[in-house]
């Protein structure tokens, strides 16, 4: 019996997307390697964070449009239909709109 090594996992490729803030109508670019929380902080928009790893739920915010790529471990599948952990989620599409 021949044992083969597992195929190397493919690297995660992140793409840039536009973060839209519904209440202020601000549009912010999120580049690969940046988090939405970092972009919001740099823009002077207050968002509480704690773990910044998708664990604690402090940054959870309602999303309104787009297709979030959830990377948290604090939200249930049901909760992810309406909310996103801003510290670690990204967007699968070109824009993601948050209720901010
Ligand atoms: S800061 Fe903890 S889940 Fe985002």
Give the total of beta strands.
5
Low-confidence stretches: none
The CATH H-level superfamily is Beta-grasp domain
CATH architecture field: Roll
As an assembly, this protein is single chain
H/E topology pattern: EEHEHEE
| Domain tally | 1
The fraction of residues assigned to DSSP E strands is 25-35%
What small ligands are held by the chains?
FE2/S2 (inorganic) cluster
Described by the principal axes of the CA atoms, the overall outline is globular
Percentage of helical residues? Answer: 10-25%
Cα separation of the termini: 57 Å
Structural class of the helices, strands and pairings?
Answer: mainly beta
Query: In DSSP terms, counting alpha (H) and pi (I) runs of 4 or more, how many helices?
Result: 2
How do the helices and strands line up, and which of them pair or pack?
Layout: E1 17-21, E2 26-30, H1 36-42, E3 60-69, H2 77-80, E4 83-85, E5 90-98
Parallel strand pairs: 1-5
Antiparallel strand pairs: 1-2, 3-4, 3-5
This protein binds FE2/S2 (inorganic) cluster.
The site of FE2/S2 (inorganic) cluster (FES) has 14 residues, from loops.
How is this structure best described in words?
The protein is mainly beta and 100 residues long. It has one domain: Roll (Ubiquitin-like (UB roll)), CATH 3.10.20.30. The chain has two helices and five strands, in the order E-E-H-E-H-E-E. A five-stranded mixed β-sheet has the order 2-1-5-3-4, covered by helices on one side. Strand 1 and strand 2 form a beta hairpin. The longest helix has 7 residues. The chain is globular, with a radius of gyration of 15 Å. The model has no long low-confidence stretch (mean pLDDT 92). The structure holds FE2/S2 (inorganic) cluster (FES). FE2/S2 (inorganic) cluster binds next to loops.
């Amino acid at each position: 019996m021949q044992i083969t090594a597992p195929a190397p996992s493919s690297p995660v490729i992140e793409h840039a997307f536009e973060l839209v803030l519904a209440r202020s109508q601000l549009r912010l670019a999120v580049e690969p390697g940046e988090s939405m929380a970092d972009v919001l902080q740099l823009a002077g928009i207050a968002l509480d964070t704690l773990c910044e790893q998708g664990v604690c739920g402090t940054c959870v915010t309602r999303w309104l449009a787009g297709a979030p790529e959830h990377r948290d471990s604090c939200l249930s599948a049901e909760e992810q239909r309406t909310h996103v952990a801003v510290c670690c989620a990204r967007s699968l599409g070109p824009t993601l709109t948050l209720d901010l």
